[in-house]
Write a structure and sequence with these properties.
Length: 441
């Protein structure tokens, strides 16, 4: 039986000339369906159609027929879909309401009128499913990106939805967190829960999936998961020997609010070197990058940075994007850097041609990520610090990022990347630094 059926459906976001979805006929089967395809292909739009956010929240023009769990999407209010469809966004931090983990996970239950006495057990169960029971009383704004992602998934699971919809649920997770979330999803699948998951790492769920829905330019096609094969790292040829030490940190203890997260860290990097930081969510990778960037004052220790510009990409790329067009975002960096070239070269390097005049915040998650990278890395920085740069990226975009990273290093820049992406690490790393509990291992 199909959980969702679409016939002759078209959809356009407000004030955009192109169709986000062009569906002649599509049935999503019960069980687990994977949604794949390039960034900007329509994956998030299709997922938001499943709970009525498209079109009821986003507006725009829609025609045709859309039915989810036997409800007509065009006539059913989103508040009714919320009773049956649990949804986790690509940027989970944007859906948080409460300040603490416990209250955030309980928030949906409160809206459903769940009995107060039964809430603690349901919250405990949801936190346990993604193995973050120890975070129950933590404030959400103190969590790492991966920890926040697991909180959002727990909040959706707590409501016991008939259909669980997840948009890039593993994009920021470390190996342990990814294992927990994948195991929880597999358990839910075996218990009979219907799920639709947009994911670039198809290998995590392909063996469990009933179908893979590939979306490109808004047009879907269903394929058999048995025909899918995993991707391998692209070839990383011989790299030049790194040059002289260009940055160093000595005896650094640092953390937000003067609460230590890093403890007595010694580390250095060289010209033309790509250093990858690995470690569990909350281990201190982001704190190290922010401290090295000068955005977080260390509690103790010394930092030496190279001459020239230090570029920093945070985990949330939207925090950098405030100008009306993609071209202006990249152009501003080039102007401040005193560079002579225009933005087209950087946009071409990251496959952003044709998006020059688009408003960055209207783009897909993967496209926003690439625009932020272009805006940060334009103008040849001396030190580039990238925090989870492949979040929401498809394979071509990640390959483009790898090529750009190596080009920067070949021109003498020092690059430091915090990532859980094993393929990116295999393709670009000259040296890997493992961080555990705020200390270098």
């Amino acid at each position: 039986m199909a959980i969702a059926t679409f016939d002759r459906l078209t959809y356009q976001y407000p004030a955009t000339p192109d169709f986000a979805l062009l569906i002649e006929r599509l049935e999503l089967p019960s069980g687990l369906t994977l949604v794949a395809g390039p960034s900007g292909g329509g994956k998030s739009t299709l997922l938001r159609l499943l709970n009525g956010l498209v079109p009821h929240f986003h507006g725009g023009e829609i025609s045709g027929r859309a039915e989810v769990l036997r409800h007509d999407v065009l006539s059913t209010p989103t508040r009714l879909f919320a009773l049956e469809v649990g949804f986790v966004f690509q940027d989970p931090e944007r859906q948080f309401v409460h300040g603490t983990v416990e209250l955030e996970v309980a928030f949906g239950l409160e809206n459903l009128g769940f009995p107060v006495g039964a809430m603690p057990q349901r919250v405990d169960q949801a936190l346990s499913q993604v193995e973050i029971g120890h975070l129950r009383r933590r404030r959400v704004n103190t969590l790492s990106g991966g920890e926040r992602q697991r909180v959002a998934i727990a909040a959706a699971l707590a409501m016991g939805p008939r259909l669980l919809v997840l948009d890039e649920p593993t994009s920021q997770l470390d190996a342990g967190g990814r294992t927990s979330v994948v195991a929880a999803i597999h358990d839910l699948h075996h218990s009979g829960r219907d799920m639709v998951i947009a994911e670039h790492r198809l290998e995590l769920f392909a063996t469990q999936a009933k179908a893979i829905c590939h979306l490109e330019n808004g047009r879907p096609s269903l394929t058999d998961p048995r025909s899918w094969s995993p991707e391998l790292p692209s070839s990383n040829g011989p790299r030049p020997t790194p040059g002289e030490v260009t940055w160093s940190i000595r005896g650094i203890t640092s953390g937000p609010g003067r609460t230590p997260v890093l403890h007595d860290i010694d580390l250095e990097g060289r010209e033309g070197e790509v250093v990858v930081l690995r470690g569990a969510n909350g281990s201190g990778k982001t704190t190290l990058l922010r401290t090295l960037a000068g955005l977080l004052r260390p509690i103790s220790g010394e930092i030496r940075r190279p001459r020239g510009r230090v570029a920093y990409l945070p985990q949330d790329p939207s925090s950098l994007l405030n100008l009306p067009t993609v071209r202006e975002e990249v152009g501003l960096t080039l102007t401040r850097a005193g560079a002579e070239e225009g933005p087209q070269e950087m946009l071409r390097a990251l496959g952003l041609q044709g998006l020059d005049d688009r408003y960055p915040r209207d783009l897909s998650g993967g496209q926003r990520q690439r625009v932020a990278i272009a805006a940060v890395l334009a103008g040849s920085p001396s030190l580039a610090l990238l925090d989870e740069p492949t979040r929401g990226m498809d394979r071509p975009a990640r390959i483009a990022l790898g090529n750009l990273t190596r080009e920067l290093a070949d021109r003498g820049a020092s690059v430091v990347i915090a990532t859980h992406d094993a393929l990116l690490t295999a393709e670009v790393a000259d040296r890997i630094v493992d961080i555990k509990g705020g200390r270098i291992q």
